[in-house]
Amino acid sequence: MSSIDPYINKDLGERAIARHEVREIEQRHTQDGLRERDSSASSLSEGQDDIVIIYNRVPKTASTSFTNIAYDLCGKNHYHVLHINTTKNNPVMSIQDQVRFVKNVTEWREMKPAFYHGHVSFLDFTKFGVKRKPIYINVIRDPIERLTFDECVSAGGSDCAPEKLWLQIPFFCGHYSECW
C-alpha cells in the first residue's frame, strides 16, 4: 500500500458523508414543503422568525464597522448575530464544509432570525435543494477609490499592489475555481 491511501480513503469517506447530508437536506425540504402546503396560512411574523441574512464580508469595504452595527442592534431587534469561521480564514469552503454550512444555517431554528457574517464567498443554497434561501447582503467600494492611490504608491503601501486592487471580485463569484 502506498502512503497516500489513507488520505484517499478519508476523502472518499467525507464525500460519501457529504452526499448523504445533501440527501437529508433535500428530504427535509421536501417534507417541509409538504407541511407548508398542507398547513393553513401562517402569520407574517412566523415567516420573519425564520429569516437568515448572510453578510459575506469583503475585505477593505468597512465591513467591521457594518458588522458592529449589526451587533449593536441585535438585542433591540430580536435577532442573532453569528460569525462564520472558516478553515485558515479561507473564503472558499470544501464541498463537505458547504454541505455542513447549509445544513447548520437551515436547521438551527433556535438561532433564527439570524445575521451571519464572515469573509466567505457567495454560496448558492439552491444547489443543495434549499427552498427558502438566505438573503445575501454586502457593502462594496470602488477598488481605486478606496485608496488614495497616488499616496499609496508613493508611500510603497502594500494595499495598492495590483493583485490587491481586485481583491473584492471573487467574493461575489462564488466557490467556482475560476474565481480564485
Automatic annotation (TrEMBL):
Keywords on record: Glycoprotein, Golgi apparatus, Membrane, Signal-anchor, Transferase, Transmembrane, Transmembrane helix
Gene3D superfamilies: P-loop containing nucleotide triphosphate hydrolases (3.40.50.300)
Molecular function terms, GO-annotated: heparan sulfate 2-sulfotransferase activity
Sections of the chain in a coiled coil: none
Main localization, broad class: Golgi
Signal peptide: none
Subcellular location: Golgi apparatus membrane
Record's GO cellular component terms: Golgi membrane
Database matches in InterPro entries: Heparan_SO4_2-O-STrfase, P-loop_NTPase, Sulfotransferase
Membrane topology listed for this record: Single-pass type II membrane protein
Pfam family of the protein (one): Sulfotransfer_2
Family: Belongs to the sulfotransferase 3 family.
PANTHER family in the record: HEPARAN SULFATE 2-O-SULFOTRANSFERASE, HEPARAN SULFATE 2-O-SULFOTRANSFERASE 1
Protein name (record): Heparan sulfate 2-O-sulfotransferase 1
